[in-house]
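Hey, can you fold this?
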Amino acid sequence: MNQDLRRKTSGADLTGADLAGANLIGADLKSADLTGADLSGVDLTGACLTGADLTEANLTEANLTRADLSRAYLRQADLREANLTEANLTEANLRETDLTRANLYGAYLRQADLSRAYLRGAYLTGADLRITDFTEANLHAANLRKADLREANFNGANLTGADLSGANFCNANIYTTNFNKADFRGAVFSHLIIKQGPIRSDGFQ
């Protein structure tokens, strides 16, 4: 089964499949339907999941290092403690997804939808989060050191206790964002969107 899935299986119907702990390194699952599948502990290092549907899939502790999840649909998926180091999640739908303590070091999430996502304690150091939607997302105690957050939308997001040191917030929307006890050291805040329009700032520490 694992050998078959590592071959080209793009567009496959794997709805509700039990693939827990499987070795799927480098698998081609482009546009596959994995709705509700159990992928807990799966090794998907370098796998292609472009445009795949992972709605409500269980990906707890899965290894997705350098996997391609661009334009994938992961709404309400469980990615707690998953390893997404340098994964490509460009334009992915992660709305209401649970990424508690997930490792997203150096990941690419440009224009991704993370609205109402749960990222408590997530590791996003050096991640590309340009134009990403964090509307009402929970980033309590998340690590966003040196993350690129230009033009990101944090409307109503919770960044209580987050590490934002060295992060770039240029042109970001921080209307009603909760920054209580966040670490801003070295962060860049300029041309911010607050309430009805942009304000100019030289940044603050």
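Oh, and this one too while you're at it.
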Amino acid sequence: MSAPPAAVHPGPHVERMSRVDTAWLRMDTDANLMMIVGVWMLQPGITHAALCERIADKLLKYDRFRQRVVQDAVGASWVEDDAFDIDRHVVREVLEPRPGQSMREALQERVGELATLPFDPRHPLWQYHLIEHYDGGSAMIARVHHCIGDGIALMSVVMSITDEDGLVEHRQVVAGPQLDVLMLHHVFEHDGYVHVNRVVGSAPN
């Protein structure tokens, strides 16, 4: 039997994970992923390039979104991902409804599939999935592992890409989405979605 990996010692680009976040990490099972999934309906739509730019500006300033997780015998560490590629984390999706299936049903089905798809542990534990053309705008699915932060604080950070200041600033470059965002926050359990919090923002006048 091989020995467990030795603890990763903190350095300039290494940070030990807290016990609470390590617990979230180790609670992952195939049937119960510790993942937060959010869905946004954006009017007007947003392009993949514009979303990548906004995420780079709003999210990547936080170390956690550039770090991968390395587990060892005594816990886990946050380590800078030297192979970080934003295109790996901001993914284009195209919905192709089956005969008789609505776009909304196709979106719900895709969210369910993504909620059961584990992250690649070689890279930071988050992804955005963008459907550029959905119901006259765009739809965006965000997946973030719970070890990156607690639900309320985490969704506040994730939703920062739609905040008013960012939109006003970004509107000078692209036709960014208004702040009429419907955010569905799901915590996925093995028997389905256990709760849904709805946060609806209205566009500034």
